[in-house]
């Protein structure tokens, strides 16, 4: 059974709850990796991994452990690209699939937007996490887990 990896530093609480319920229901080994303590219920299937504070410490830990066929849940595009390069599947907390066909364009757009912001342009931030985002994520995660059983 593949392992589910969660970039927990920026994972919305509602998405975390969906992941926990799905991992328990499907007996899927799941790791929440962050540079701070993540409150999780006692579980055989769901574990937290706290890493040292530092830039990209959680990302580096995930990349060192993830293997082909595992699923990573993250919105961090450079981390997603590294996981995809290792053969892992990647999904955002909004249920979007990131893969070899779209990750490079997404990273380039992210870099372009960072350049605009650095020049003083106000580009706004990501939209809030909506009920539709929650449903789409839960459905996408269920589909991935169903394929793995």
UniProtKB/TrEMBL annotation:
<comment type="similarity">
    <text>Belongs to the UPF0178 family.</text>
</comment>
<dbReference type="InterPro" id="IPR003791">
    <property type="entry name" value="UPF0178"/>
</dbReference>
<protein>
    <recommendedName>
        <fullName>UPF0178 protein C1H70_16575</fullName>
    </recommendedName>
</protein>
<dbReference type="Pfam" id="PF02639">
    <property type="entry name" value="DUF188"/>
</dbReference>
């Amino acid at each position: 059974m593949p392992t589910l990896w969660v970039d927990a530093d920026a994972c919305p609480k509602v998405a975390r709850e969906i992941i926990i319920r799905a991992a328990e229901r499907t007996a899927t080994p799941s790791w929440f990796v962050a540079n701070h303590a993540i409150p999780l219920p006692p579980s055989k299937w769901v574990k937290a991994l706290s890493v040292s504070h530092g830039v990209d410490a959680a990302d580096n830990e995930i990349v060192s452990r993830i293997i082909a066929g595992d699923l990573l849940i993250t919105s961090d595009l450079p981390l997603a690209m590294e996981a995809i390069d290792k053969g892992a599947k990647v999904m955002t907390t909004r249920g979007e699939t990131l893969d070899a066909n779209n990750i490079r364009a997404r990273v380039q757009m992210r870099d372009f937007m960072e350049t605009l912001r650095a020049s003083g342009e106000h580009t706004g931030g990501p939209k809030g996490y909506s009920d539709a985002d929650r449903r789409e994520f839960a459905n996408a995660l269920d589909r991935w887990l169903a394929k793995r059983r």
